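Entry for the shared binder. Reason: the reviewer on the internal report wants the predicted structure included alongside the sequence.
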Amino acid sequence: MQSLPRVQGTPKAVLAAALLLWGGAVAAQSPPDVILSNGKIFTADDARPYVQALAVRGERIVATGTTADINRLAGPRTRRIDLHGRTVVPGFNDAHDHLPHGTPAGRHFGFPAAPLLPGPSPAQVLDTLAKLARQTPPGTWLQGDIGLVVLLDPQFRRAALDRVVPEHPVMLKPPWGHGNILNTKALQVLGISKTAPDPVGGRYERLPGTQQLSGLLSEYADWNARRELNATLPDAGWVRLLQQYSAEALALGITSVQDMAGDMVPDQTLRVVQAARLPLRLRIIPLPMTTTRGIRYGEWANVGRHLTPLVRVSGRKYILDATPLEGGALMRRPYPGRPGWYGRLNFPVDTVRQMLRTALVSTEPLMLHISGDSTAKLVLTLMSELADDATWRRKRVRFEHGDGVAADLQPRARALGIVVVQNPSHFINPALVNAPPVPLPLNPAFRSLITAGVPFALGSDGPMNPFLNIMFATTLADPKEALTREQAVRAYTAGSAYAEFAEQNKGTLAPDKLADLVVLSQDIFTVPTPALPATVSELTMIGGKVVYEAKVIGKR
């Protein structure tokens, strides 16, 4: 909105003159293209959290307020949407996902009846593989989901797989993405020798007393292998998966996604994204892979920052430790039941220090996967040694997951401007799924981070449904850390926008912000908790354009 001249005089005269000037300014502008009115609009703006109506012109919001005030702005061509009391929120911004979901190669199998933890038994997996081998031609990839029981079983390695499926390449991995078991055929197809040296940041497990690979790949060894497989697959399959994801995302009110792009080489990633022509906002965050000599720092160096009006490439992400589930996160105390085991860093401390030094002189934002509290403390200490707090606050270094930012570390994290991006589906309250609790060496922070003033965002890194993740975030096993629903939505919208330096353009529903919003099928602030995951979008708008609209809108 144009700036108005200052008016002087008595308070009443000032108010009257200001209203006349404001009215003249609005009248001088064209009417809005769209008005949404008579609703419960959650703006995610602390200054004015709820309004009844808003107006959109072009790609931006031009006014918010009462239904009566906003309706007066309408012109003859304004589309007027009567919300009939529906709830509206800013478009969800998934601050941490990995796209596209799935893979178009081979046969996939899972065990829906088996809980994520401990997952299927070795016998179940081998029996399934034997049946699939009889049903599929030799050479077909067989890929399946496993849990901790199989992943941590030293007897369940490539030799066991070779006895059952010697002619099919097999890849078995847990849903949380850390650890991968391959048979000999898979190692051969991917060009990994039986005595291959470890890449920086990753490990090949060895048979005791030898240099022979057991078949278990961890961290960057694992991700390098997956990327080698994905590079052999046709773009068309990836494009189809990406378009399928986009359609599902819009129907759930997701308007922005921040993609940790490590599953495909840069050229393939760009080809697939451009061919998919996605209607949602996509931020591609490069996740460089490694060799035996070091990190491939320059593999994204020649990629442009803005691929389309909706797609941009920004940032660098590095994974410093694994997760507490398999015992890979670096902790300050030993793991329960594992005396003397504290986890480990993926990189030497000097390499982590160099990542931080590079971030200080780079325009690319830095994202660090940090799960363990010892990893968090180390990075905070290194940052404090390398630069002053004000310099780091401008950088907005992100701790992806940030599970280990414990209470004693939160003041330092706030001072350095750390942004924590958390993933609610990693911490499902066992009471919700009738499962026994999993003993972990830490209690993740959610509400305490917000209370401490640490910028906080939410991303999926698992099930994409934001309403399912809101349920998880508001029902944590530790009630002191559980978020309110308003806090969860703010973290999923305004918090995620701040995490990508985009808070001036999106994340809240206010004048001059992009009109990225979603009309919901139910009031997520009042429905019973079990009903939250069933929420869907009735209308999704991105940049003032309706990109998804259910047939029910306007008919109630």
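Summary line for the report: Confidence is low (pLDDT under 50) at residues 1-28.
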